[in-house]
Amino acid sequence: RKEGYRYFMEKEIYEQPRVLADILTGRLGEQAVRLDELEADWLRPISSVTLCACGTSYHAALTGSYLLERLARVPARVEIASEFRYREPVLDPNGLFVVISQSGETADTLEAIKLAKAQGLATLALCNVDNSSIVREAERTLLLRAGIEKGVASTKAFSAQVLTLWLLALYWGQARAVLSGERHARELTALRAVLNVMQVQPRVHERLHRLSKRYLHGHGFFFIGRDLFYPLALEGALKLKEISYLHAEGDPAGEMKHDPIALADAELFTIALMARSTFYEKVKSNVEELSARDATLIAITTEDFELADDIIQIRPYDHPMLEFFEMLVVVQLLAMEIAIRLGNDVDMPRNLAKSVTVE
Ligand code: M6R
């Protein structure tokens, strides 16, 4: 049941704080993160991690690679499952192979974990469906605890994947004792704040609803960001594309001048993820270059930014992951509002299925 929401997607966006609370239950202690599904002794001998997935789950994997390198200091690489299995990959025999899948049935991801297992790697699945094919293959599993996700466009499962990866990175960092006490405490404090961050603010939803009508026509959308906000840019573009059928792409803000800027004009809407916590000045200068080419700019930021045609004001946080989750809600709602205005069924976008069991 949609419980008063217009679409399951909307309901699932609003459910995110509850999902995140479920994920943290029993895992967020005073002094440390606990993950009973894993043991520190299991992780300690592992020398690298490969994260593998498709679609939105791939964007979670990419986000996770930043977190794992930063917080656990393990070398992390990311693979698109459909590419991985055909390119004769060379894997670290002491590595951990992590697959991420909402459904647990994605054919390419399933084959990827089989391949890694056959090469003797330790395997871990992050999955929302217990007893799915991927869970059955994996040596260890972290269930996502997101509840059934009905919308084809993944929202709460993505936030669950990212939060679970953040916990994994911190847990692993604890096991390897690589974080300073101060850094560790800062992460725990941020984790405690994450639920509030994902609460949809009526002011923001209303603003996105009103803004969405300005962006129904044009050449398309650029989502740009740096660091953690690059995978978020990819996810914002995917979400918009899959339910609105408008062209959208996500790019690292620093790549603009190497190619995408060639497209810039007033009919190209640039959604700039301008996080105060993360290379703000660098992103700002990338955005200024686009503005000089007359691009229409929509800035998601805490700051005033005079070059922006529209600003979506977010709350200030000093931790990048809190800014990440705050902006995630914005890009999800923006995609949904644009698609609804276009008259699309956002729960069942054309040509897409919830579970992709063929390659
Ligand atoms: O079930 P999975 O997480 O393995 O699915 C992977 C993709 O098919 C999926 O994330 C797809 O991109 C979504 N429709 C995105 O919203």
Write a compact overview of the structure shown.
By secondary structure, this protein is an alpha/beta fold. The chain has a five-stranded parallel β-sheet with strand order 2-1-3-4-5, sandwiched between helices. The chain has a five-stranded parallel β-sheet with strand order 7-6-8-9-10, with helices on both faces. Helix content is 44%, strand content 16%.
Structure report:
By secondary structure, the chain is of the alpha/beta class. It has 13 helices and ten strands. The strands form two sheets. The chain has a five-stranded parallel β-sheet, sandwiched between helices. Helix 12 links the parallel strand 8 and strand 9 (296-301). Helix 2 (16-24) runs antiparallel to helix 9 and helix 11 (229-244) runs parallel beside helix 13 (320-341). The structure holds 5-amino-5-deoxy-1-O-phosphono-D-mannitol. Residues 54-57, 101-103, 106, 109, 152-154, 242, 352, 355-356 line the site of 5-amino-5-deoxy-1-O-phosphono-D-mannitol (M6R). 5-amino-5-deoxy-1-O-phosphono-D-mannitol (M6R) binds at residues 54-57, 101-103, 106, 109, 152-154, 242, 352, 355-356. Its EC number is 2.6.1.16.
